[in-house]
UniProtKB/TrEMBL annotation:
InterPro entries linked: Gfo/Idh/MocA-like_OxRdtase_N, Gfo/Idh/MocA_Oxidoreductase, GFO_IDH_MocA-like_dom, NAD(P)-bd_dom_sf
Phylogenetic classification of the source organism: Bacteria, Bacillati, Actinomycetota, Actinomycetes, Kitasatosporales
Organism annotation: Actinacidiphila oryziradicis
Protein origin, superkingdom: Bacteria
Span of domain GFO/IDH/MocA-like oxidoreductase: 149-268
Protein name as annotated: Gfo/Idh/MocA family oxidoreductase
Domain Gfo/Idh/MocA-like oxidoreductase N-terminal per the UniProt entry, residue ranges: 16-127
Coiled coil: none
Amino acid sequence: MQALSAEESPVSAPRIRAAVVGTGAIVTDSHLPALRAHADRVELVAAVDIDPDRVKVFREAAGEDVSGYSDFDAMLATERPDLVLIGTPPAFHRVQTVAALRAGAWVLCEKPPCLSLAEYDEIVAAEGAESGPYAAIVFQHRFGSGAVHARELLASGELGEPRVVHCQTTWYRNAAYYSVPWRGTWASEGGGPAMGHGIHQIDLMLDLLGGWSEIRAMAARLVHDVETEDVSVATVRFPNGALGTVVNSVHSPDEVSRIRIDCADATVELTHLYGHANRDWHYTPAPHVRADTDRVARWSTPDHDVPSSHVAQIGELLDAMQAGRRPRSSGPDGRTSLEFIAALYKSAFTGRPVLAGEIGPGDPYYTDLNGGHPQWAPRAKEAR
């Protein structure tokens, strides 16, 4: 989906009225600067948090006339925002997203969007039929210029057919990180590093390659006393037959986020940590292509550098709102990554391969990502 050009954008349209829910670090450090970057198109009118002191601090940081609320429903009824940005813990995402949609607001929700495929389908059912409102997931890594360029090269066949894929989110989190009560539990976080950390690289991988067809996985609790996994490894088959690996860890002192795709004519590789720019993308031509300098030159990242960020995604979301069209990372497009993670857990916990589209109503992994498995369901923590 292409953003509207300056000529196409309705420059005379009134500013979109936005509200934020949750005033912690992700909203203060990412959502607020992104809204400021688009201040000509969007106006922040309200902030919601159950902690009145945090609301006060956030309103002071916002530096404008932002109303403060401790009650989400009261904010919706009073302010009637056009857009709600949700940065609360994952357990609240479904209820808050559905409430905002039913109040007529579009939604941009932090990952994970909810705790199960069943919850996600409930969110989609609450969306508008044709022109919104819609609910999008914060998958900002898709929206940098380097990612857009790589996706275009892959989709056009310029790099040749993908053959081998590697997706890596190997980070480090100590016991203090898991002392936050909602972390490491199925009921409040929905999963471990696959769900809470790796979902960003998984989503970018799937956006670049257009989906997946089969997954086989393993997961373990190696260190942390949590309900969820703290490491997982998966092998993946893609629709064209390419094979890949996906690794998610919180035990890696040398932290890195990486995607590598070996195609018939080139390798494209992204290496970063929490966000990427054009300089983080690298293209290596195959030996039989190196002499074709004109072709290899076309692979160079664009001169215009748009880092992956909330700024880039919100800009595209505002375009979609003004055009009344579904934004990327919403609906079926947004569901792909959550389905992948549900399948990863099902394969890891059952020891069987899982096919795309396999998990639906009636499958225990449709309503709970732990599938009620006796070694992984919440009660297992007390049994250890």
